[in-house]
Amino acid sequence: MNARHGCVLFAIMAAAAGPAFGQGAPAAVQTGAGAQTSVPDFSGIWRHGSLPWLIPPASPPGPVTNRSRRKDNGQSDYGQLVGDYTNPILQPWAADVVKRKGELSLAGIIFPNPANQCWPEPVPFLFKHMAMQMIQQPDNIVMVFSEDQEVRFVRLNASHPAKLVPSFHGDAVGRYEGDTLVIDTVGTRTDRPFAMVDLFGTPYTDKLHVVERYRLADYEEVKDDIARAAKENWRPQGPMKTEGYNDKYLHVHFTVEDPGAFTAPWTASMVYQRDRRDWPETVCAENRFGFEHEAEVPRAAKADF
Predict the structure, then answer these.
(1) ∠ at Cα 285 (76, 9), nearest 5°?
(2) Strand 266-274 relative to strand 28-30, pairing
(3) pLDDT tens string 117-151
(4) How does 163-182 read in b/e, with b if 16+ C-beta sit within 10 Å?
(5) Residue 62: CB partners within 8 Å, gap ≥ 6?
């Protein structure tokens, strides 16, 4: 069992362990004044199904987007990842990194990233995964991501340690603000291969700070985001279905700042729909030659046993 599958097993055991870990979403939280308020139920499986994944805001500053567009609908061309190095959020050195990555893609060279190399993915790169299962506990939240079975742990009602040891996912602490779950992440490792926040190779530094805000929303609250997502991102399964969808949407708003790489904080969002199907396991096979399964998976000359 590798470390990634060990984390998945721990998450499953935690969810099933009973009172020590809790069952499902906590019913209430204690506020500073002593009153109890209900906690929104984010538990379960959520799916967005878009590539890339971040939705640009209605007005900038927003994330780096793809200069290469599909000819049939004008959406981001997932087969050619050419980040917009002219985005004013990028400091000159970061813009140069994005430009060089795009030149590789234009030349037909698939440059490595944490997803196609099976490395842990930093936030917000981590949300590339099309589906996420959230397990809510009274003191923590576990997020299990599809495709590579990445697992992220969020401590609730806690502070970042004074002496923070950087980690692949960073130190994530969360709190409930009414109907919103707020997650604050710092301390993401930079001394690692493929240190980037998106598929365009946008770099980050040890000053990376990401704040996520999760809310359950009706269609009217997210329809503008869905429209911008349809314009920007490619969905292999077609447009997000809204007719006949009777569940709430999960709306996630990101604020990303990094004075070492960006000129200003920028924002983006994502919209998920509930997925009530079984949770599939898709394990990453390390492949130095292509994205996902576009190239031959490396094979050993002989069996290990």
Answers:
(1) 105
(2) unpaired
(3) 889 999 999 999 999 999 999 999 999 998 767 99
(4) eeeeebbbbbbbebeeeebe
(5) 56, 87, 89, 266, 267, 268
Predicted local confidence at residue 295, as pLDDT: 44
The tens digit of pLDDT for each residue in 205-232 reads 999 999 999 999 999 999 999 999 999 9
SS3 249: strand
User: How much is the pTM?
Assistant: 0.85
Structural domains counted in the chain? 1
262-to-91, 168, 172, 194 alpha-carbon distances in Å:
5, 20, 21, 18
Residue 221, judged by CB atoms within 10 A of its CB (0-12, 13-18, 19+), counts as middle
Q: Is 101 helix (H, G, I), strand (E, B) or coil?
A: helix
Residue 96 lies in a domain: yes
Question: Distance between CA atoms of 106 and 83, rounded to whole angstroms?
Answer: 11
* Exposed e or buried b per residue across 118-136, where buried means at least 16 C-beta atoms within 10 angstroms of its C-beta: ebbbbbbbbbbbbbbbbbb
End-to-end Cα spacing for the chain? 16
CA distance 210 to 195: 15
Within 8 A by CB and 6+ apart from 85, the residues are 64, 95, 96, 98, 99, 102
Q: Count of CB atoms within 10 A of residue 109's CB?
A: 9
> What CA–CA distance (Å, rounded) separates 130 from 166?
26
Cis peptide before 138 (omega within 30 of 0): no
Residue 115: domain span: 3-12+43-274
CB proximity list for 51: less than 8 A, separation 6 or greater: 76, 78, 128, 130, 233, 234, 235, 236
Q: Find, among 108, 53, 62, 118, the residue nearest to 82 by Cα.
A: 108
In a domain, 27, yes or no: no
- Residue 299 covered by a domain: no
Contacts of 224 (CB under 8 A, 6+ apart): 58
Is residue 120 a part of any domain in this protein?
Answer: yes
